[in-house]
Every structure is written in structure tokens, then in C-alpha cells.
Design brief:
Blueprint (H helix, E strand, L loop, with lengths): L30 H24 L4 H6 L2 H16 L5
Length: 87
């Protein structure tokens, strides 16, 4: 039986000497970014505390009802998500 020809496949791997990884050093976050990040987290915490303590005394807060939880946790989560970009 005749032997089949072996096809030569071209190797498409990149030459490692051409692609040396370069570590990009990111600058630290500015104080404004940190202030806004911690501000959102504190604002959410203070909003929730005020809601639980004085929900019946503040008319517009009483009208919002359970939406106050969404507002308070929303501010807090925005600050928490901002921590992912913090350097």
C-alpha cells in the first residue's frame, strides 16, 4: 500500500523575542477620586441611618417608602464599585 504524503503545517506561533511583556505602571488615584468614592459610601450609610431613625418625621422620605433602601444602597454600591479602579 502506498504511503500517504505528510503535509507540512506552518507554525503560526509568535516569536517570543519580539513580544516582550511591558509592565505598565498606573499612577495612584487622585485625592479627588478617593474623596468621591468614600463620599458615596458614607452618603449611602448616612442616608440609610437617617431613613431608619427619622422616616416618619421627614415627609418626602415617608412618601418614598421602600425606595429609600434602593437609594441608600445605590449610593453605597456606587462607592463600592469605584473601589475597583482605586490604585
Amino acid at each position: 500500500m502506498p504511503k500517504s504524503k505528510v503535509r507540512k503545517k506552518t507554525d503560526y506561533t509568535l516569536d517570543p523575542t519580539n513580544r516582550t511583556p511591558v509592565k505598565v505602571k498606573a499612577a495612584p488615584s487622585s485625592t479627588l477620586y478617593l474623596s468621591v468614592m468614600f463620599g458615596f459610601m458614607l452618603l449611602g450609610l448616612v442616608y440609610l441611618i437617617v431613613y431608619y431613625l427619622a422616616q416618619d418625621d421627614i415627609a418626602w422620605m415617608a412618601n418614598l417608602g421602600a425606595w429609600n433602601l434602593l437609594i441608600g444602597f445605590g449610593f453605597w454600591i456606587i462607592g463600592l464599585v469605584m473601589t475597583m479602579k482605586w490604585r
